[in-house]
Amino acid sequence: DLGWTNTVNTPDMVDVYQLVLDDSGTRYRLDGEWRELEQRTVTLPVRLGPVVLPIRRDIYRSAHGPVIKNDKGAFAIRYGGMGNLGQLDAYYRLNKAASLDEWQGILARMDIPSTNFIYADKAGNIANIYNAAIPARPATVGGERIDWRGILPGDRSDLITRGSVSYDQLPRYVNPASGWLLEANNNPFLDAGAGSNLSPGDFPPELGIELKDTNRGTRGAKLMAEAEVLDRAALERIKYDTAYENSGYIAQMLRDVAAIRTDDPDLLAAQRLLSEWDLNADNIGRGDSLALLMIRPFMGSSYSNDPWPDAEAELQRSVDHLLRHFGRIDPPMGELLRLRQGDVDLPLDGGSDTLRASTLWDIDDDGRLSVRHGDSFIQWVEWMPGERVASRSIQPFGSATTRPASPHYADQSTLFVQHRLKPVHFWREDVLANAASRKTVTNRR
Predict the structure, then answer these.
(1) How does pLDDT run across 244-290, given as a tens digit for each residue?
(2) DSSP secondary structure string, 217-251?
(3) What is the rounded distance in angstroms from the CA atom of residue 371 to the CA atom of residue 357?
(4) What is the pTM of this model?
(5) How far apart are CA 442 and CA 23, in angstroms?
(6) Orientation of helix 265-275 relative to helix 248-258, angle to 10°
(7) Which long-range contacts (CB under 8 A, 24 or more apart) does 272-279 make?
């Protein structure tokens, strides 16, 4: 009847309050009165090498929420969905929903504290919900405008939020005029194309909705909008796109590299190679391997608000890696980026934050990058007119990734690197026709 999936978003869901403690450190001030900090001792099992030891720690709580004590003082934490235990039930009921209205009604309970949801059904409905149990923050308190992104004074009860915003206040799309929706961990104002996108000005800043974007979001929205027809071929082409837009953190990284002043011949050659790079991690261009190594820390900085990397230091790191393991700064990217599982060792395309995502990896002893994060489970579902629902899927390794003796330990790898999908045997007769074995179980009392 319907399908949905979800992925992380990064709204500001946490408020931090600095408490005023008395000299004993056991009481905090609230509205001019002293209150006792709740305190109890917990025992935590902590693994230290081969043994697990019980470690006792004191934990604290105020009217705001959990309290952390450190060298800078005592800070209380309050977050969206605090105390709500309905998440598992909500997910269960989403899986049982049979219509868009029923599905939205479950999300509207606000029991799932965060993650964007994207939806489609056999009736042709599509939806994208920026789901988040964002604290219900007023813009002003007592006529005073509050900076909810800063450290809040912990001695005022009027700043302690109560509950979360309602479902109707969240950014959401249902059947936009563009006819398509995209979700790629981007801000919610890029999901449906020009003329259908929501406007950030329609949502108060107190919601704390992120405004940053991902390359996948920018690139995907551009390709979706440019497609004359969004048929199977067009969507497959977009899904496996390996290019970067020359914008955002990518453009800034390339500007920083171009601004490096050095006499080192290897760095000068790398600088020139990146200046000529075609912005496509397709395993064709000479600069693909160098760009692959460079982009990851800049992507991480942009997405996680980490300190901005030093371009010269990152270029040196990337050059050193390639020279040490390949003897050159321009090896084919497929020699560097690998899909490895057991005896399987295959070349990969894509990069960090491309639609064909090869995002994070382990660095093996031979200098190759074994991808561990990026494209994972890909599922393609179609409700064609007059036909029952059909599906294809793929996983980078196989369906038994923890069992090396299984024939399915890595049996999907070749299809995955070839951008191919396998059928999902959804209907009973398909399952029986393709079963490797069948067992009859008798229920005996």
Answers:
(1) 999 999 999 999 999 999 999 999 999 999 999 999 999 999 999 99
(2) HHHHHHHHHH-SS--HHHHHHHHT--B--SSHHHH
(3) 10
(4) 0.89
(5) 71
(6) 140
(7) 273/329, 273/330, 274/315, 279/243, 279/244, 279/245, 279/246, 279/250
Domains and CATH numbers, the chain: 2-10+83-136+164-213+221-237 (3.60.20.10), 248-373 (1.10.1400.10), 378-434 (no CATH)
State how far the Cα of 211 lies from the Cα of 200, in Å rounded to an integer: 8
Longest dimension (CA), the chain: 83
> pLDDT per residue over 383-434, tens digit each?
988 899 999 999 999 999 999 999 999 999 999 999 999 999 989 999 999 9
Nearest-angstrom CA–CA distance, 232 and 211: 31
Please name the helix (run of DSSP H) or strand (run of DSSP E) that holds residue 113, with its range, or none.
none
From the list 306, 17, 28, 20, the residue with the least C-alpha distance to 147 is: 17
The token pair at 313 is 């230091």
pLDDT-derived band at 305 (thresholds 50, 70, 90) equals confident
State the Cα–Cα distance between residues 349 and 418, nearest whole angstrom.
10
Strand partners, 127: 119, 174
Is residue 11 pLDDT above 70, yes or no? yes
How far is it, in rounded angstroms, from Cα 98 to Cα 257?
52
Cβ neighbors of 436 (< 8 A, separation 6 or more) are none
Is 4 within 8 Å of 104 (Cβ atoms)?
no
